[in-house]
Write a structure and sequence with these properties.
Layout: H1 2-22, E1 45-51, E2 54-60, E3 67-75, E4 82-91, E5 94-102, E6 115-122, E7 126-130, E8 135-142, E9 145-151, E10 157-165, E11 188-193, E12 198-204, E13 211-220, E14 223-235, E15 238-246, E16 252-265, E17 268-275, E18 278-288, E19 291-299, E20 305-315
Antiparallel strand pairs: 1-2, 1-10, 2-3, 3-4, 4-5, 5-6, 6-7, 7-8, 8-9, 9-10, 11-12, 11-20, 12-13, 13-14, 14-15, 15-16, 16-17, 17-18, 18-19, 19-20
């Protein structure tokens, strides 16, 4: 009964508070515009925190195709890493925060649909999102300081973050990236054209704790078409690249795409893996300090080529105008 009551209370809170968000009053009786993605632009950047011996990082992208992508990672010596993929978007009913959470090996913390939280309270510097079993609060304390709370209503966890960069750095802020340090060239925000009217944005955190984490957003004619969440991890069998694919609303992701490191040298890496019934080979090469070339060749069961995908990406290094 407790779960049912919590869900019911959360639903009631959304119903009661949502009108306060959509129709805040201005002097003179007029209604101010409902909060939108642009009101959350202060989240853009790489935020770090250290809590209880664990190092936390989260990066929020600029608005891309009307959405903001967030990547979260928690690493600690002697503990399993934890990851999170976030998506902020505007709907006719207001701003939503969608979440998918993962443990080591990119195993989902929850099955089925993503967690969906809706914006129920907003001021200039404070935004509260509420779902059936989760509450998230973002509070801007200063230009480089952010306070968040996350979790259920009984004991939410509070964290104080410091913004270390507006855009993704190319290397970890501190030493000790370990075996994955050789792949630091992959870190950053990369942008590439893709197909007819398409565009790909790849967002990767620098290696830390033997984990390199990232997300990819594919836009088609300016609108989100698909997302991926990936992790390059050191496992007992060696380095493995893991990927889960999602629709534009973070649905899906049931199948895990796995690949093993097949070779490489400085500023270059090669992987071989499986995707469904097929195998594939991927090479990644830094051809210039701000250029990254990716080539994926997918093979049929008889060994012939099914498809070749090539991306020639440019590093996004300039801060977005604010």
């Amino acid at each position: 009964m407790k779960v049912v009551k919590i869900a019911a209370l959360a639903a009631l809170a959304v119903a009661v508070l949502a009108p306060l968000v959509s129709r805040s009053q201005q002097p003179g009786g007029g209604a101010s515009p409902a909060p939108g993605i642009s009101d959350l632009r202060f989240l853009q950047g790489l935020w770090t925190a250290d809590v209880g011996g664990a190092h936390l990082e989260q990066y929020y992208s600029p608005a891309l195709g009307g959405v903001v992508v967030g990547v979260f990672r928690r690493v600690a010596t002697g503990a399993e890493p934890h990851f999170e993929l976030a998506l902020l978007r505007e709907k006719p009913t207001g701003v939503e925060l969608l979440l998918r959470r993962f443990g080591p090996g990119l195993q989902p913390a929850e099955s089925g649909v993503p967690l969906t939280l809706r914006l129920v309270e907003a001021t200039v510097d404070r935004f509260v999102f509420l779902g059936d079993s989760e509450r998230r609060t973002f509070e801007r304390r200063a230009d480089t300081e952010l306070a968040t709370t996350a979790g259920g209503s009984d004991a939410p966890a509070s964290t104080l973050w410091r913004r270390t960069a507006r855009e993704l750095p190319t290397r970890a802020a501190s030493a000790g990236a370990g075996a994955l340090d050789a792949f630091a060239f992959l870190a950053g925000h990369w942008q590439s054209p893709f197909g007819d009217g398409g565009e790909v944005h790849e967002l990767r955190l620098a290696p830390a704790g033997d984990v390199l984490t990232g997300a990819m957003l594919r836009l088609q004619r300016g609108a989100p078409a698909s997302l991926e969440f990936s992790s390059l991890e050191r496992q007992s069998t060696g380095l493995r690249a893991l990927t889960r694919q999602f629709g534009p609303d973070l649905q899906g992701g049931a199948d895990l795409i796995e690949a093993e490191l097949a070779g490489g040298a400085r500023d270059k890496a090669a992987f071989r893996g499986t995707v469904g019934p097929y195998t594939y080979a991927q090479t990644l090469e830094l051809t210039a300090p701000d250029r990254l070339r990716s080539r994926i060749e997918i093979f049929k069961e008889d060994g012939t080529t099914l498809r070749v995908i090539e991306l020639d990406s440019t590093r996004v290094a300039e801060p977005v105008a604010r």
